[in-house]
């Protein structure tokens, strides 16, 4: 059975900008159906998955993922007519009555017919005929349940909104059937809560209040929070939110009308916050006391509510294995507190927890409905995107006169040279194998550096990434070094940069470039089983520095999606202050003069 999974609502973002041509850029992502992606299952195996943004360069786009679809079909070696089902991670059609007062919007944006029309216009009428809508939160849940490999447990989904819900709790059983039938994943929804009580929207409104982009910059607020003191504004959030232990539900007491005028950035909700706190200043990359304290209080609020919610349902169900999905669970600080709950014995977070992850999730849902069983062995492999041959890389390099490069091959000499550069406090980029699925760079499209390098955070932020100085960097650490450097329960989430860990006091000096203000770090545990090349590189780094750990940040610059292809990799490398690019056995040399002349230009992007 071949199932193509899709995410996104192809008309949503376009309609927003057509009806609001003067929309504030900070509000330009206040719409459903962003982060479109495609994924393909062949007989239950996830063969490929990729976000459309990586192909067209439009970060977070919700457009029909034409390029991602084409890639998935090619990677699987199938034609459109070979696809049995096209699963889409929204099912607004079943909620049509809820949109009786906004029928035009429903017909133009929300109905699954828009996806059918898009597929037909793209030249794939056979795919349009086979479209099957899947409930959004069900797609999210299965995106985590199936690859977790857990036989049973609790699945929690939290995001801005699905069709009509913002949070769902499921109990799942995987690999067995009570009626003796073919084994498959089964979900039982235990609880849900409406959009008015959305934790995702609450956090995004707070993000917008601080002058960052709604539905995009929440990770910046998470990074700012450790610099603040939650005490100053704690009561603001405690008056606004609470956990109802009788119902097992989060309650958010927004006043009537607070959530009106969403496309204007929820002005009433922001005014409410301003009345109770302060008038925020436009962010300039520095740390402002009021803004940091607000971020700290909001982060504390989110974490306390999620811990109470998850703890309640674990106790109520007696389950000990936990699966998390939905954009809320890209918050690695909250994930750490959830992982520390005594009732959690195992925890998996979908690496693509945003809506891109509903592409494989919808595919798994459709396959399960048709009786497909799934067998998961070993950790979930997130390296599902395009790969490029040595010949393709060489063609890109040869097409750029004046570029200095040499071919080394992918053997021991190649990784040893990269390790030598890191040990010598150089900043390098690596481009290997298949691109990562999800927002985190996990060693195949990464910028790497020594974690105790000279002013390493400032050097990368100012001359390479062109981003806010308060933003932390994550470490990638070899599994053999993890426990002597960090305090972690060793759950699967650590392998995908989805959970923070405390840095051991004795390791802070050697990890100064990745230790955040609260002495934590968003770790990626690297294992030979999941990424042999990266693990070998870290082995080589350990031989030279004594520590198998590096700074790992995504290979891109501000406003640019994670780099997918070699041409973009080389062009980006050529205009930022990197020392070398290691790309499939080729070593590309940085040009200091070129970097110097382009830094000021890049810093305005």
Automatic annotation (TrEMBL):
Residues 419-589 form the Carbamoyltransferase C-terminal domain. It holds the Pfam family Carbam_trans_C. Gene3D superfamilies: 3.30.420.40, Carbamoyltransferase, C-terminal domain. This is Carbamoyltransferase. Belongs to the NodU/CmcH family. InterPro entries: ATPase_NBD, Carbam_trans_C, Carbam_trans_C_sf, Carbtransf_dom, NodU/CmcH_Carbamoyltrnsfr. The lineage of its organism: Bacteria, Bacillati, Actinomycetota, Actinomycetes, Pseudonocardiales. It comes from Actinomycetospora endophytica. Residues 97-363 form the Carbamoyltransferase domain.
């Amino acid at each position: 059975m071949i199932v193509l999974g899709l995410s996104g609502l192809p008309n949503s973002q376009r309609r927003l900008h057509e009806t609001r041509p003067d929309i504030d850029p900070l509000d330009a992502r206040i719409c459903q159906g962003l982060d479109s992606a495609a994924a393909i299952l062949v007989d239950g195996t996830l063969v490929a998955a990729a976000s459309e943004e990586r192909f067209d360069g439009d970060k977070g786009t919700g457009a029909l993922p034409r390029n991602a679809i084409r890639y998935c079909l090619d990677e699987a070696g199938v034609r459109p007519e070979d696809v049995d089902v096209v699963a889409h991670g929204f099912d607004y059609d079943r909620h049509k009555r809820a949109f009786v007062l906004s029928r035009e919007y429903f017909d133009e944006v929300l109905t699954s017919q828009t996806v059918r029309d898009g597929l037909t216009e793209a030249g794939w009428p056979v795919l349009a005929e086979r479209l099957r809508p899947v409930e959004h939160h069900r797609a999210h849940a299965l995106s985590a349940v199936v690859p977790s490999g857990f036989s049973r447990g609790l699945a929690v989904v939290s995001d801005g909104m699905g069709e009509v819900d913002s949070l769902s709790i499921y109990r799942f059983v995987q690999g067995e059937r009570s009626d003796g039938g073919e084994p498959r994943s089964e979900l039982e929804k235990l609880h849900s809560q409406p959009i008015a009580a959305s934790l995702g929207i609450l956090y995004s409104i707070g993000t917008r209040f601080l002058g960052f982009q709604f539905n995009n910059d929440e990770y910046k607020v998470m990074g700012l929070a450790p610099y603040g003191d939650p005490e100053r504004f704690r009561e603001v959030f405690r008056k606004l939110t609470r956990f109802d232990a009788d119902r097992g539900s989060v309650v958010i007491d927004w006043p009537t009308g607070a959530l009106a005028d969403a496309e204007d950035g929820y002005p009433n909700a922001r005014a409410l916050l301003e009345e109770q706190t302060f008038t925020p200043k436009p962010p300039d990359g520095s740390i402002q006391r009021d803004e940091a304290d607000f971020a700290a209080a909001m982060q504390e609020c989110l974490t306390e509510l999620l811990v109470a919610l998850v703890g309640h349902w674990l106790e109520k169900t007696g389950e000990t294995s936990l699966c998390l999905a939905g954009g809320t669970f890209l918050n690695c600080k909250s994930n750490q507190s959830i992982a520390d709950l005594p009732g959690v014995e195992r925890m998996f977070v979908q690496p693509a927890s945003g809506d891109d992850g509903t592409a494989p999730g919808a595919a798994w849902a459709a396959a399960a409905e048709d009786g497909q069983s799934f067998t998961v062995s070993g950790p979930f492999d997130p390296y599902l995107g395009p790969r490029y041959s040595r010949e393709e890389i060489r063609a890109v390099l040869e097409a750029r006169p004046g570029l200095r490069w040499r071919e080394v091959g992918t053997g021991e000499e190649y990784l040893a040279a990269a390790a030598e550069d890191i040990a010598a406090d150089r900043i390098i980029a690596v481009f290997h194998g298949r691109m990562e699925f999800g927002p985190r760079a996990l060693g195949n499209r990464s910028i790497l550096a020594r974690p105790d390098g000279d002013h390493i955070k400032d050097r990368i932020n100012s001359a390479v990434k062109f981003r806010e100085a308060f933003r932390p960097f994550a470490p990638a650490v070899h599994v053999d070094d993890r426990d002597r450097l960090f305090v972690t329960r060793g759950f699967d989430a650590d392998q995908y940069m989805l959970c923070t860990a405390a840095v051991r006091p004795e390791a802070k000096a050697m990890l100064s470039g990745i230790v955040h203000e609260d002495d934590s770090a968003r770790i990626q545990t690297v294992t030979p089983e999941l990424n042999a090349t990266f693990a070998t590189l870290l082995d080589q780094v350990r031989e030279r520095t004594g520590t198998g750990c590096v700074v790992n940040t995504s290979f891109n610059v501000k406003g640019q999606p994670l780099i997918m292809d070699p041409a973009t990799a080389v062009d980006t490398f050529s205009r930022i202050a990197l020392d070398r690019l290691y790309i499939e056995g080729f070593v590309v040399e940085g040009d200091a003069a070129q970097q110097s002349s382009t830094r000021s230009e890049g810093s305005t992007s």
